[in-house]
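Please check this:
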Amino acid sequence: MATATTPSKPHPMSSRGWRKTRLVIGEIFFYLLVGLLVFALLAPFVWMIISSISPPTELASTPIRWWPENPSLDRYRALFLGPREGEIVPIAVSKFLNGMKSSLIIATATTLVCVFAGTAAAYALVRLPVPKKDGFLFGMLAAQMMPIIVIIIPLYLVMQKLVLNDTWQGMILLYSGFMLPTVIWIMHGYFQTLPAELEEAAMIDGCSRLGALMRVVLPISGPGLVAISAFAFLYTWNEFFMALIFTASRTKTIPVIVTEFSTQAGIDYGLMTTAGVIGSMPPLLLAFLLQRYIVAGLTSGAVKG
């Protein structure tokens, strides 16, 4: 007569050991992916710095030299102080400081316009009885999805008619128009997280709606204001396509100037990388200094209440 046999149970230690092994493997895989991502982000910038201090012969040598034997800061001196007598450099070198000035003025003014106008519009959409506000918000979002290449020709003709091509005012107007919908969306989500009772209490105490905005809402909206300021500044500083189309000589920004480092002998990659390093310093410093506030401002509107 056959007897039933009970299946053997797995040893508890082996199950626990396998679970621990899976956790270790998953953690190793996670940190490996993070390391690859960091390398992919930092490697181009590090190579740009190395190229900016490498002599031309070492920069063009094969095999590639990962660190120059005779590093030099001559390119940085040429961009800030001008070339030495008899030194042949691209004409754009003389325009570099003016490009930095243009980028700084345009980016700063655009940021101020977007912060003031975007904050006021977002507050009105959240707190005031604006008719069909949802349609207005989705219309702005739809406009943001339209590629700039689609409207670049009529936009150029309008700017030409208004005599705003190759002017700081025209570039500020363009960038503000393209950035305002994004700024309004970010601040709209941020203001929705703030309790309306704070403003109502201030208005009971005698404040007007504008006074409640200035004395109550804005002081506690620091992370959101910092986030939109950094976002608008970084976008304007790095934007290339519109700057290439709408600037000719006087108002060329850094991204456009960098593309003009060429001579009769060809493109000067060393000067191009040097200008790239200098031009990337302001947005990098801004991002590092304000990263905590940027993240807080961009994520605070994710959950309402």
